[in-house]
Each structure stands twice: as structure tokens, then as C-alpha cells.
Design goal:
Elements (H helix, E strand, L loop, with lengths): L1 H11 L2 H48 L4 E10 L8 E12 L2 H4 L4 E10 L1 H5 L5 E15 L30 E13 L4 E17 L2 E16 L11 E12 L4 E11 L2 E10 L6 E10 L1 H5 L4 H7 L3 E2 L3 E10 L7 E15 L2 E13 L14 E11 L2 E11 L5 E11 L12 E19 L2 E20 L4 E12 L3 E11 L2 E10 L1 H7 L5 E12 H4 L21 H13 L1 E13 L2 E13 L2 E11 L2 E12 L2 E14 H7 L13 E15 L11 E14 L2 H10 L7 E14 L2 E11 L3 E9 L5 E7 L12 H7 L5 E9 L2 E6 L6
Parallel strand pairs: 4-5, 24-25
Antiparallel strand pairs: 1-2, 2-3, 3-4, 5-6, 6-7, 7-8, 8-9, 9-10, 10-11, 11-13, 12-14, 13-14, 14-15, 15-16, 16-17, 17-18, 18-19, 19-20, 20-21, 21-22, 22-23, 23-24, 25-26, 26-27, 27-28, 28-29, 29-30, 30-31, 31-32, 32-33, 33-34, 34-35, 35-36, 36-37
InterPro entries: AsmA, AsmA-related
Pfam families: AsmA (PF05170)
Keywords: Membrane, Transmembrane, Transmembrane helix
Length: 823
């Protein structure tokens, strides 16, 4: 190494090297001198021929335009662009002949450099090879009538080529720096506005065609294909290289670029523009991998304002195709295709996770109609996602008419229904377990980008559901549901429901469900067929209670699905239900009924019962009536026909109707009655003592009164030697009017083994008893043996007849002589 360095040093210090270095220095100095002499010569040439050069430049330009070309000053740039001759034009303006009418100057430039070929210039010809435009404004204007100030350039006259013909002047290179370009098309309502920081273009010519590789860096102020809707890529910086070619035969410009930067994103673009007088079609195809918000913000305001309500977390592969006519008013045709894989998609109503689909946006959904928002659509193919943990699959969904969006499609889902809890913004239903399958064709409006009034047709199957209906404090277990939604009705094919000891099987339908659910839930009628092997009525009275009022809470941001849950609550509370009930066994406290059938109508927490029948206490009851909550109680009305029920068992079932003066053990027999009464029940379903009002007619057959204190008191007073402790009846009937604590006895007839008795007046369960008793003294023990009713009536009041008054004396029953009208 040291030896090599030593040899190099010796060579550099040798006389031979110094000799060659000196000669090379003289050569470089000679070149510089020649360059300076040449430039000086060009400067002298320009100064001597300035007027002629400028005249030729003006002539060259003016012979090709229909307008005015003005230059404030010009000068030669020494050494710039050598070996070409560089001419700098200052304060250049080009105006068309109709400038006075529209006031738009085609070109206004602070400086334009024109580099001329020296050899052509020495031969007194102008051949411009490069144009540099600095600090300029270019305004291309097209009026509503189709006139454009760009038509300032005269068409070329086509001449047959000859060998002697000189080639036309060509501009091989164009550079722009700090140039503001506006293309204002009033005919098509389009506005393109660019601040060009830099443009560099070298042009290759072939016959009448040309091609170039162009570098461009510009800020997009407006790229509006429809000025009503706004600009694409507004305020974005565009930078990249373009391969551009022009074909004279079809007057078409083709553009291709890869890796073009718009803002922070990279795009591949292929485009064409027809610039013929009768053909102004264009097409732009854009491909990229981009974030949703970045892509949305590149679109016009009418589209991005809607798309910005959505978001996709990870970049998506997008292809956008734009086709239109620069001279036609309205939007171009736009088709955007996107491929989403394992992404998160946010919508105003919630979040889709693990989301995959292929999406298409088009503003020409129906090809026969014009491109516009009403004719726009978003199409989702092979959609798979989880919404609030609920898996969804949609083969195809379409959202069309972006002015009044309507979404349609078919959704399938298979999930554990406990996941539905996440959909509720209010505590209405809480699901503990169960499984659901759904296959539903859907349609819903999108109002302010929120789902509104979704409608479904199809089937839903739910198995083994355990849930709590919180407003009514109902807990249900092992519930199965099969629903079928159609345009005409909702068919409830099967609901198997278990609540405590109650088992219920339901089927039915709701006519016109899809329309009434949202628009008139109060008109909705649910037609149920219910079969119950076993049901406890008291346990179901809680269903009728009004939902507890919620405390007024501080205002919070609106939660998702608020419309859905509020609507669900409204429908449940407002709809009516008509139920055809059949039950093998019904219990109501101590009452047990079998073979029960009834038509039940539920409306606004009120139950109406019609055509009811049941078997109980060895007889049967036909009934109708109503039950309605009132605070913590229930108001009931009843119209019942009781047929030969065991009276003791019947009274025990109803807690003896609150009567304290005797108990069911005091009476035997078969009761037949007609009752039209109303009253109150407690929150647990028990009759409230002394609340009943109404009319009651009754008859007891094969009856007996055992140890009944009021009769025993009368009997011992009037008939001390008769068995008043065990009285059998051949006739016990009456007509009563119930008034709470008191009963108006219009007629009470007793034909017994001890005595016959007729009573009328007031009997009170508390205070106020005042009964008039008519008691024949004859012994009626053998009256029952008489063959006919007429015979028994004929002997009824023979002999001595007592008239007594049973009355209340400070809460105790007293008896005295007298008739009612005498006090």
C-alpha cells in the first residue's frame, strides 16, 4: 500500500504530468472563452436584431390566434439555456376577441421564457423548443352557449406534404412554475381550479400525434364535475408523473400514472379526454388502498357528507370509475368498488366487527335515468359481520336513492339470544339464555343516516329462551318461539312459554303487522290461540300492572337503537290482543277450574273476557267481564252464570267473599246464580272485602245451613224446641243488590226443615243491618214431602206468622218484634 502511494505521488510531481495538466487547463479556458464569445455574440445579435426577432415572434403568435397578444417588455437571458437562445417575455397577456363580454383573460404571465433554436434563428426562422411559464394565471372559459376563450387558436390549414416543405415549429418542452389554472365550464356546470407549483413536460412528436412524460405538483382548489355538488379532492396536493399521449385522428388525450400522490394517499390512474368539437367524453379510472375517511374526503361534498357518517378502521382496496361528458350538464357516471376484509365498520346505529364484504357505489343505479343522488345506490355483496356480537350474513343488500335512502336485502343470523341485551338502550327485556335463528328479508328507511322503521318478512326461530320482561317483573323459562313475517300478517306459529309453574303454548297472527307496528300500534290486534295445561291466574295479574315510572335522569347523549327500543315499548303498551284461551287446569287461590275456554281481549293493560266457560266445584260457570289495574289494585267486572256448583267449595275459593258472619263450613248445597257485579282485588289477586257492587240472583238446591249464628239466634228466640243448628232446605233463593259492606235483599226465600222464612231489607257485613223477617210458626219439617210447588206454597203461611226485625245494635245483631215499615 505504501509503495502504491509513493508511486502515485512521484507521478503527480513528474514533469510529464505537469505538462499534460497545463495543456488541459488551457483547453478548458479556451472552451469558456468560446462560450463567452458565443453568448456575447448572441447578445450582440439580439440587440442588433431585437426589433426583427420580436416582430417575428409577434407575427408567429398572432397569425395563430383570434385575439390580442400583449408583451410589456422582453430581454435576452445571457447564458441561460445555452446553446439555445433564451428570450424572456415580461407581463404577457393573451385575450380572445370576446373578452369584453366575459372579462376572463386566457393568459396573464409575469414571465415567459422561450428558448429558440440558434441555427434556425441565424437563418431568420423562429423555432421554439422550450417554453417556461412563471407566476402566471390561465383561465379557460366556456359560456352557456358553448363559446370558449380557448378557441383563440386558429385551426391549422392542412397542406399536402412535399420533400421541400420545412417542418412546422414544435415546442419540445413545457415547464410551469407557480401557475394558477382555472377551467370554468358554464355549459356543463364544471369548475377545475389548480395551483400548479411545478409542471415539467418533454414532448415527443410523430406526425400529428405527440406524447410526453409529465411531472406535476399542484394543489387542487376545485375538481367539480357538477358545481352544485362541489369538488372532488378539494384542497389536496397532487404530485406525480403522468404518461400522456394525444392522437390527432380521434382528438383524444390518454393519461396514465402510477404512484400518484393525492394528499397522503397513493393512486394508480388511467384516464382519457376527447377534445373534439362534437365529442367531449371523458373517463377516469382510479385504483388505491386507502382509509375510508381519506377516500370520502376526496369525493364531492354531496357524497362525502353522507359517507363521513360511516367509518372503516383499516385501509380498503378501492377502484373508482368516472365517465361523463365535459359539455353536458349534470353529474358524471360514478362507480366505486371496494373490497373489505376482516375490518370494523362504524355506522350511526352501531359497530360491525369482523366485517367482510364487497361494496359498490353507483350514481346510475337505473341505467335509463340520469346520474344523480336519487338514482344512486350502495350495493353490498357477501356481507358477513357481527353487530353488537350478533353474527349476520347478507348475500346482497342495496341502499338506493341517497336523497331518501331505502335499504333492502336478506339477512341470516344464528346466535345465542343473550347477545340481544347489547341492542337495548333501555331495560325492557333481559335475556339469560336461549338460541335464535333468523332468515329475514328486510326493508327500512334511513333518516339522517339512522335506521328508521325496519320491516321484515321471513322466519325467526327461538329455542330454550330464558328471559325477564322487566317492566312487568315477569320471568320466563324454556320459551320457544316460531315467527313468520309476511306482507299480510305476522304469523306466530309456535310459542311455548313457561312462567313459574305456568306452561303456555301459543299460536296466532297479527294482521297488517308491518304497517301498524310503526304508524298505528294502538290499532294493532294480536290474535292469539293459547293452550295452558296448567295456569295460576294470580301469577299473571302482574302482566296487567302499569310499568313503573322511571325516574327523570340527567340528560345524556342519545344512545344507539333508541328508536328501536322506544318503539318496542310503545307497541307492547298500546297494541290490543284477542286471545282464544283453552286451559286444562286453572287455579285462582283456592279455586281450581278445569276445561276452561274464553275469548280474552287485552287493550292498554285492560283484560276483557267474553264467552268464558269453566268447570269447578262440581258444576260449571259461564262468565264475561274485565280486569283493569288501578294503582296498586285491580278493578274487575263480572257477569257470571253459576250452574250447580258446590256452594261451600265455591265460597272457600273466593275467600268467602269477605263475609265474616258465617263461613263455608256453615253451608252445604248446589249453587245456581246470575251475578252482575264489580269490585276490587288486591295486587296479589285477592278480593277486597266489601268492595263488590251489583246484582245477584241465586238458588241453592239440596242445601243445608249448619250452625249459622243469625238463624240460630232467631230460631232459639222463636222456636226453642226445633233443630236450628242443622237446617236442610228444599228452597233457598234470593235476589240481592250488593253495595260494598251492605246488601240490599229484595227477596230471600228459605224453605227448610225448621221453618220457612222470607226476608227483605239490608244486611251488612259491618254496621247497618236492618232485615225484616216473615216467619210462619208452623212446623215446616214435612213440607218437602209435598208433591208440587203449588201445594207447598198453599200451606207456607198457615197458622201463626211472626214478623221480626234483625238489626244492628252497636255492632251486634239484635232481633225484635215488628215489621220493616213500622221500624
Amino acid at each position: 500500500m505504501k509503495e502504491a502511494l509513493s508511486k502515485t505521488k512521484s507521478f503527480l510531481q513528474s514533469d510529464s504530468f505537469k505538462k499534460y495538466a497545463k495543456r488541459f487547463g488551457y483547453f478548458i479556458l479556451g472552451l469558456i472563452a468560446i462560450l463567452l464569445l458565443a453568448c456575447g455574440g448572441l447578445s450582440i445579435y439580439f440587440n442588433r436584431n431585437k426589433a426583427e426577432i420580436i416582430a417575428k415572434v409577434n407575427t408567429k403568435i398572432n397569425e395563430n390566434i383570434n385575439g390580442k397578444f400583449h408583451i410589456r417588455d422582453f430581454h435576452y437571458k445571457f447564458l441561460t439555456g445555452f446553446p439555445n437562445f433564451t428570450l424572456a417575455l415580461n407581463d404577457v397577456e393573451i385575450k380572445d376577441n370576446q373578452w369584453q363580454s366575459h372579462k376572463h383573460t386566457l393568459l396573464r404571465a409575469k414571465e415567459i421564457e422561450a428558448r429558440l433554436n440558434i441555427l434556425s434563428l441565424l437563418q431568420h426562422e423562429i423555432n421554439i423548443h422550450k417554453i417556461l411559464i412563471n407566476d402566471a394565471d390561465i383561465y379557460i372559459y366556456k359560456a352557456e352557449n358553448g363559446y370558449s376563450n380557448a378557441n383563440i387558436f386558429k385551426p391549422k390549414k392542412k397542406k399536402p406534404k412535399t420533400d421541400k416543405e420545412k417542418p412546422e415549429t414544435t415546442i419540445d418542452e413545457v415547464n410551469l412554475n407557480k401557475v394558477h389554472v382555472i377551467i370554468d365550464n358554464h355549459l356543463g356546470h364544471k369548475l377545475f381550479d389548480f395551483d400548479v407549483a411545478s409542471l415539467e413536460s418533454k414532448v415527443n412528436y410523430g406526425d400529428n400525434n405527440w406524447q410526453t412524460n409529465l411531472y406535476l405538483k399542484t394543489k387542487i382548489n376545485s375538481l367539480a364535475f357538477n358545481t352544485v355538488h362541489g369538488s372532488f379532492a378539494k384542497e389536496k396536493v397532487l404530485e406525480g408523473n403522468f404518461d400522456i399521449s394525444y392522437a390527432e385522428a380521434n382528438q383524444k388525450i390518454d393519461i396514465k400514472t402510477k404512484g400518484l400522490k393525492i394528499g397522503s394517499d397513493v393512486f394508480d390512474i388511467i384516464a382519457f379526454f376527447n377534445i373534439g368539437k362534437n365529442n367531449s367524453l371523458f373517463g377516469i379510472n382510479i385504483g388505491t388502498d386507502i382509509l375510508w375517511r381519506n377516500a370520502s374526503n376526496l369525493l364531492s361534498a354531496n357524497i362525502s357528507s353522507k359517507l363521513n357518517q360511516f367509518d372503516i378502521k383499516k385501509p380498503i382496496k378501492v377502484n373508482c370509475d368516472i365517465k361523463g361528458d365535459l359539455n353536458v350538464e349534470g353529474d358524471p357516471k360514478i362507480v366505486v368498488q371496494a373490497d373489505i376484509r376482516d375490518n370494523e365498520v362504524s355506522i350511526p346505529d352501531g359497530l360491525f366487527t369482523n366485517c367482510s364484504f364487497k361494496g359498490i357505489f353507483t350514481n346510475t343505479f337505473k341505467p335509463e335515468k340520469e346520474s344523480s343522488d336519487p338514482n344512486s345506490a350502495i350495493i353490498l355483496n357477501n356481507f358477513k359481520a357481527e353487530y353488537e356480537s350478533i353474527p349476520l350474513t347478507i348475500a346482497q343488500a342495496v341502499i338506493n336513492n341517497l336523497e331518501k335512502p331505502i335499504a333492502t336485502g336478506v339477512v341470516n343470523s344464528d346466535f345465542d339470544i343473550s347477545k340481544l341485551n347489547g341492542l337495548m338502550n333501555e331495560k325492557i327485556i333481559h335475556f339469560e339464555s336461549g338460541h335464535a335463528k333468523a332468515n329475514l328479508k328486510f326493508q327500512f328507511d334511513i333518516v339522517d343516516l339512522y335506521i328508521n322503521k325496519p320491516k321484515f318478512t321471513g322466519d325467526v326461530d327461538i329455542a330454550d329462551a330464558t328471559f325477564d320482561y322487566l317492566p312487568k317483573r315477569i320471568h320466563a323459562e324454556k320459551t320457544a318461539v316460531q315467527l313468520s313475517f309476511t306482507q299480510e300478517a305476522l304469523y306466530i306459529k309456535k310459542i311455548a312459554y313457561k312462567h313459574k309453574k305456568n306452561i303456555i303454548r301459543i299460536d296466532g297472527k297479527i294482521d297488517n303487522f308491518l304497517n301498524l307496528y310503526y304508524d298505528a300500534p294502538e290499532k294493532m290486534v294480536v290474535n292469539w290461540n293459547i293452550y295452558c295445561p296448567n295456569i295460576d291466574v294470580k301469577q299473571f295479574l302482574g302482566v296487567l300492572q302499569n310499568s313503573p315510572k322511571q325516574k327523570v335522569a340527567e340528560k345524556k347523549p342519545v344512545k344507539k337503537n333508541v328508536n328501536f327500543t322506544n318503539q318496542l315499548r310503545s307497541v307492547i303498551e298500546k297494541c290490543a290482543a284477542v286471545i282464544n284461551l283453552k286451559a286444562d287446569k286453572i287455579t285462582y287461590g283456592a279455586l281450581t277450574a278445569t276445561n276452561t275456554q274464553a275469548t280474552i281481549q287485552m287493550l292498554n293493560s285492560k283484560i276483557l273476557l267474553k264467552n268464558g266457560t269453566l268447570n269447578t266445584s262440581g258444576g260449571s260457570i259461564n262468565f264475561s267481564g274485565s280486569v283493569e289495574p288501578s294503582g296498586n289494585r285491580y278493578i274487575f267486572t263480572s257477569n257470571a252464570q253459576v250452574n250447580r256448583v258446590d256452594i261451600a267449595s265455591f265460597l272457600r275459593s273466593f275467600n268467602n267473599f269477605g263475609i265474616k258472619s258465617f263461613s263455608p263450613k256453615n253451608i252445604r248445597g248446589r249453587l245456581t246464580s246470575n251475578a252482575n257485579v264489580a269490585g276490587l282485588m288486591s295486587s296479589t289477586g285477592d278480593l277486597i272485602v266489601n268492595s263488590m257492587k251489583g246484582k245477584l240472583d241465586f238458588n241453592v238446591n239440596q242445601g243445608a245451613l249448619i250452625n249459622f249464628e243469625p238463624i240460630m239466634k232467631v230460631g232459639k228466640f222463636a222456636f226453642p224446641f226445633r233443630d236450628v243448628e242443622n237446617i236442610t232446605f228444599s228452597d233457598l233463593s234470593g235476589s240481592l243488590n250488593l253495595r260494598g259492606e251492605q246488601i240490599d235483599i229484595h227477596k230471600l226465600t228459605i224453605s227448610s226443615s225448621v221453618l220457612n222464612l222470607d226476608a227483605e231489607g239490608v244486611y251488612s257485613f259491618g254496621r247497618g243491618t236492618n232485615l225484616a223477617l216473615t216467619v210462619p210458626l208452623r212446623n215446616s219439617k214435612n213440607d218437602a214431602k209435598l208433591a208440587t210447588k203449588e201445594e207447598r206454597k198453599a200451606v207456607r203461611e198457615r197458622g201463626i206468622v211472626l214478623h221480626l226485625i234483625a238489626y244492628d245494635n252497636e255492632g251486634k245483631m239484635k232481633v225484635k218484634w215488628g215489621k220493616k215499615d213500622k221500624g
